[in-house]
Write a structure and sequence with these properties.
Chains A, B, C: Its cofactor is Fe cation. The structure is a homotrimer. By secondary structure, the first copy, chain A, is α+β, with helices and mostly antiparallel strands. Chain A contains ten helices and 18 strands. The N terminus of chain A is likely disordered. Chains in contact: A-B, A-C, B-C. At the A-B interface, helix 5 and helix 9 of A face strand 10 of B.
Chain lengths: 373, 373, 373
């Protein structure tokens, strides 16, 4: 049995199945892709005050992201330089002035410098300056924190802007949503039993929308035809729909600064390797992916709103949350169905992208290029 | 310590210990033995109607076994040819006419042909005939469904009949039990913490019967002497015993068509790689093994009866079930005790088969031959 | 980021991080270190009577330790020589005269000789003497049972005494505590999420004491200064402290036979590879380590007292237990904090030992030497 006669297909193929489950390939991705690129790890407004910190996992490393006394956010490997103890163990918290190791009390400034180490004051040979925390490149875009474990990474904008330009032809559309000024109204964390690339591939096509997303397809008719990136820059809402809620209505005004064409329009785009942005008139949804293993992915989904609207009495984000949470769960189920067959002999050479999905292959080629690099 | 002085033994040896726990050997077995031979995966009467299906796991593949509109049972890899989604996710169920993928709605006939794929009607280059479900060889014997993942497997009978002929010298004895006409009166699924081969080896010898199976040994005296295959074709019940129940009695008549010599007789045999058949006058017990990992095995045990007897008011299979369930659990405990030492240095070269067990070595050699092949 | 500028340090370094998490290195340690050295597995007074036994895990082997009719403790691989079944399955128990396999009833004497095997009486070719249980070297020191899986290990004293002599310069101090005469008043088993070597390294230094152990440092002032092995043979209690309890007091008299200088003194030492001994005036605390995996270690901690004192009405060990249990838990937390970063790129070359910790490097070199051997 099992003679694969599909090699004659004229269509692009996905990556071979092993790319979606093989632990060795996962390790290579962690090292060469997530361990080198700028990767989004959270939001800058999660640590508003000096001394506020996050601990995040990136490519196998625990990274401490902390706002300094000067207001600048910096990142360091969360590792004491003495005997290697983990310094901060909570997902987020606040330190007052210094980061002190609990094992032998070596202490570091918020800028990473070694401030003191007991019993070493009189040891001439000890070079305190050489024993500060090891820095990790840290930058921000649209209110998001991005880290790079690369030795000398290029500027963050060099990674993000070309993707926006390819998608929109300009930077102005995204700019009108002033992402850095928005605030989180609600957040949901999902754990998916699938490889992270299946989630990216799912987000990039709408061939499945008519089948998997009846509510979304009613709200955005071009999705029903499977058109995602092919119908122009934005996708227009159906007649009478003003918001991506189950009712199609909302009491929230459009975000400040939007243009006429943004009303009644949905824009979605991917910031590789791990962010999806969904722009709608009254709110923005940002997905952030964290690969947890070859067949396990965490997705943190934030619903963002105008802080002025959030401050109004009676503000309730749940109509927006209910809609995209439904769409999310529909997608996760499909991603997990695919994962189950990634090790099948039927998928050794991968599957097909039909013409409506052909653009996804560029993402696969991007991954291959990173792995070779 | 630990000088093994037993190398001078004149006895046959088991396989070296690593064959019972090494993940690499397990993978080879999955690929070369369970991935090539005909393997029993269930019963044909579990899917009596067109559209009824089973999903079964075989050598790492999910296989969809479905009865067609023509009544023929066919098997396919349970993998959509488009993006690889798992098609049917329940262990068993019914589809009405077509198998449709939930991701992008590609749909397949019960014979595996691709019936339709959205948005591809006008794509000339798309060869629909080349994108049917990938077939898996499927056949039946004695009411059991057997699959083979081999490219071009020999007929099922070529695998099964030589084993029966070696055991019985003819096919008639087994034939008298008309296995395909019997029905399941009760079924128990066991999960054992041991390698599947220990279960086969346990079934093949009765040297342990006097120690491990006092009830069975009372009912079948030759077992108490450790004689399994060595005492002639069948093993006679003790004086006054008419059925393998705890009381030795039963209200069930003998199965229709049995010969005089079958009454008061137990016949056991193995259909490699994964079926044990136990023929008794009024019922048949069939064990089916599913290796789940190097040290984990599922055993599905079915108690089969004459459907005419089952239809009678007051039919109760539990006297038969209680007996062999007790024997089963006694065996599983022994198999698991052995498993615990398979990685010991004491078992690096394997253990011994005493003369009463010497025939088991043929099974070990069969496994080695499959692994080489 | 992440340029390690610490290579210029004049300090000794720990082992590279991989030594604390790599499964391959763990396997090598199990084979070459724990599989060859004398390793402590428990206490001899746990099996006081002939026929009493322990089953213990050592370097992947289940070992049966049993007291013979002659009162001698012997050890054997817990493996039936026939088909490999585990013989004794309880952690401890009693057998009456013979050890019988439950599978086929082969039976062995308490001295390991094969006493009988069913159906083999008349098999001339079977050499019963060659099929006794495989012996494991077994000896005792200070009431502790030690095993060696080595083929022909040196005497136990050759492994233990040099360590005591290096630490004390003589054997008399330890001898005064008559360890073999003491009895267990309380025992706690801990499971730590860290490599066993981190636990050894933690025990060997007191640089962390001031930070991690405020109670201990108050009781033993030299510990507050980080002095463990550097302040002379024993560490003196603070003024007014007579026992290592939270109050510093106790109703227990000193152990019989101690010298004047032992009162108010704490002596700690390591018996590699897996025992820590803590001598205090009125009780002794013994830690025994069992590596369970690359990042998992069991520690069994026994509090030992004079049996005559234990026999007195109202004996209560819990003041002593509370103190060292607190110290233990403080230590385990630090060991686990270190474990979390052992795979970090910041620890690829290991961490530093400051001068107060420099002596630990000898332990690391001992491990490396074992791995090479």
């Amino acid at each position: 049995m099992v003679t694969d006669t599909s090699t004659a297909t004229p269509f692009a193929t996905t990556l071979p199945g092993r790319y979606y489950h093989d632990p060795d390939i996962y390790r290579q991705e962690q090292e060469r892709l997530f361990g080198r690129l700028w990767v989004c790890v959270g939001r800058a407004d999660a640590i508003p005050q000096p001394g506020d910190y996050l601990t995040v996992d990136l490519a196998g490393e625990s990274v401490l992201v902390v706002r300094g006394r000067d207001g600048v956010v910096r990142a360091f490997l969360n590792v004491c330089r003495h005997r290697g103890a983990r310094l901060c163990t909570e997902p987020c918290g606040h330190v007052a002035g210094a980061i002190q190791c609990r094992y032998h009390a070596w202490s570091y400034g918020l800028d990473g410098r070694l401030l003191g180490a007991p019993n070493l004051r009189d040891v001439d040979a000890f070079d305190r300056d050489a024993h500060g925390l090891l820095p990790v490149a840290c930058d921000q875009w649209g209110g998001l924190l991005w880290l790079s474990l690369a030795e000398d990474p290029p500027p963050l904008a060099e990674q993000l802007e070309p993707a926006i330009l390819r998608r929109f032809g300009e930077l102005d559309t995204v700019g009108r949503y002033r992402l850095a000024t928005l605030a989180v109204g609600h957040s949901i964390t999902y754990e998916l039993a699938c490889n992270w690339k299946l989630v990216v591939e799912n987000f990039m096509e709408c061939y499945h929308c008519a089948v998997t997303h009846p509510e979304l397809s009613r709200a955005v008719p071009s999705f029903k035809a499977g058109l995602a990136y092919q119908q122009g820059v934005g996708a227009r809402f159906a007649e009478g729909v003003v918001a991506l809620t189950l009712s199609g209505q909302t009491t929230r005004p459009p975000l400040p600064g939007l243009a006429e064409q943004d009303l009644g329009t949905y824009y979605g785009f991917v910031l590789l390797p791990n962010v999806f942005v969904n722009l709608t008139p009254d709110h923005v949804v940002v997905h952030r992916l964290e690969p947890l293993g070859p067949t396990q992915t965490r997705v943190v989904c934030d619903w963002l709103f105008d802080p002025a609207v959030m401050a109004e009495p009676g503000f309730d984000p749940m109509d927006a949350v209910a809609f995209f949470d439904l769409v999310n769960r529909q997608d996760w189920e499909m991603c997990e169905l695919c994962q189950q067959n990634m090790a099948s002999r039927a998928y050794r050479a991968g599957g097909l992208y039909v013409p409506l999905e052909a653009h996804i292959r560029a993402f696969n080629d991007f991954v291959l290029e990173c792995l070779e690099g």
